[in-house]
């Protein structure tokens, strides 16, 4: 996707009527399972070239006769399923819909047919993408893709590296440095990434198989036992957790302090207790862009973990700082990243990290989102993060 975006910005800046489709190479055995295209013979830039023909799932004979590329090692060029399309694509889709109605044909509205119309109008170019191609169009390829992602070598050092960027940021911000200086207790930290829904996420609620992939952006949680009977929370949202380039004036900062006894009182559900407490705080109405119940994620996690320890060792209170560059409300599991990061750091703080498995921790986070935050979800996001 990043390659496609770069090519689009470099070659189509300001031209809103031009589209760019991601292109990859496929083998002869795969041509009948995908959409092929042909490039012009005059290709000067493999990331931006004219497309002269398109066809959906041709026979091997047709592919050999018309779609074997003479410019790209005699390979076949196929659509990657990643496209940046102009607004005129909707005009083409509407025309295609009218054609189907006129011919009394009942079938799905084809995006590829509309894209081919763009091509004929000179409004579509191709971008050859580097990387491995995975198809999910049939059970065999779906399984191959799932297996490849499952057994791909992970790079744990990257997470350590992102954490090393977050702590210097804490030290640079006066409010955070002051908060942690009020207690002499150690600070426990953890991070969790956002996630990309590759496929199947919409059916997570029904127990379907899904394929998710962690993204580069992370949520970092810092947890410290405090000397006051409150949960003091500061959340900072930034575009990039990078101490060298960050601009303090562009940070989104939310701060809330909630009495610790709300976690320990069991007269009502924690969700009800928090709602009642919010209603009583007439003098601390948050800013327009701050959700009133964002502390529920953090307090909910703490409450569930505290229930697992002896009441005699329950801390007086907590200082908690969240720093995240996972985009909020963009479909990349920012809430799950917050829950998992806090759960990992807090479980270590409460000496529970060796007694709770990752699966149990994910299910605990799901419970919090379902019953304390009040958001219906499966455990897909929490398991991924």
UniProtKB/TrEMBL annotation:
GO terms for cellular component: cytosol. GO terms for molecular function: ATP binding; galactokinase activity. The keyword Nucleotide-binding applies. InterPro entries: GalKase_N, GHMP_kinase_N_dom, Nucleotide-diphossugar_trans, Ribosomal_Su5_D2-typ_SF, Ribsml_uS5_D2-typ_fold_subgr. Transmembrane segments: none annotated. Pfam families: GalKase_gal_bdg, GHMP_kinases_N. SUPFAM superfamilies: Nucleotide-diphospho-sugar transferases, Ribosomal protein S5 domain 2-like. One of its GO terms (biological process) is galactose metabolic process. The keyword Methyltransferase does not apply. Signal peptide: none annotated. PANTHER family: L-ARABINOKINASE (PTHR10457:SF35), MEVALONATE KINASE/GALACTOKINASE (PTHR10457). This is Galactokinase. It comes from Rotaria socialis.
């Amino acid at each position: 996707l990043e390659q496609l975006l770069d090519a689009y910005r470099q070659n189509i800046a300001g031209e809103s009527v031009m589209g760019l489709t991601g292109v990859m190479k496929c083998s002869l055995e795969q041509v009948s399972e995908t959409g092929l295209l042909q490039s012009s013979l005059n290709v000067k830039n493999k990331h931006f070239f004219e497309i002269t023909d398109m066809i959906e799932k041709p026979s091997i004979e047709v592919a050999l006769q018309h779609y074997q590329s003479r410019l790209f090692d005699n390979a076949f060029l196929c659509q990657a399923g990643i496209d940046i399309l102009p607004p005129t694509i909707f005009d083409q889709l509407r025309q295609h819909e009218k054609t189907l109605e006129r011919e009394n044909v009942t079938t799905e509205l084809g995006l590829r047919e509309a894209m081919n119309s763009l091509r004929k109008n000179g409004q579509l170019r191709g971008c050859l993408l580097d990387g491995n191609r995975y198809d999910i169009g049939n059970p065999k390829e779906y399984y191959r893709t799932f297996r490849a992602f499952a057994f791909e070598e992970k790079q744990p050092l990257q997470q350590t590296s992102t954490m090393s960027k977050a702590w210097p940021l804490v030290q640079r911000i006066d409010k955070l440095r002051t908060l942690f200086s009020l207690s002499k207790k150690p600070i426990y930290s953890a991070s969790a990434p956002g996630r990309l829904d590759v496929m199947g996420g919409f059916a997570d609620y029904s127990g379907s198989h899904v394929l998710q992939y962690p993204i580069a952006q992370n949520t970092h949680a810092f947890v410290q036992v405090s000397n006051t009977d409150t949960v003091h929370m500061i959340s900072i949202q930034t575009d990039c957790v990078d101490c060298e380039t960050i601009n303090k004036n562009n940070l989104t900062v939310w701060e809330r302090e909630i009495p610790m006894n709300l976690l320990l009182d069991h007269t009502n559900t924690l969700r009800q207790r928090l709602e009642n407490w919010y209603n009583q705080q007439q003098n601390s109405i948050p800013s327009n862009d701050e959700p009133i119940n964002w502390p529920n994620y953090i307090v909910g996690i703490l409450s569930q973990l505290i229930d697992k320890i002896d009441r005699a060792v329950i801390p007086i209170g907590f200082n908690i700082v969240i720093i995240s560059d996972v985009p909020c409300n963009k479909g990349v599991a920012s809430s799950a990243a917050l829950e998992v990061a806090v759960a990992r750091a807090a479980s270590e703080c409460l000496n529970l990290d060796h007694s709770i498995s990752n699966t149990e921790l994910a299910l605990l986070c799901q419970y919090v989102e379902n019953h304390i935050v009040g958001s219906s979800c499966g455990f897909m996001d929490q398991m991924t993060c």
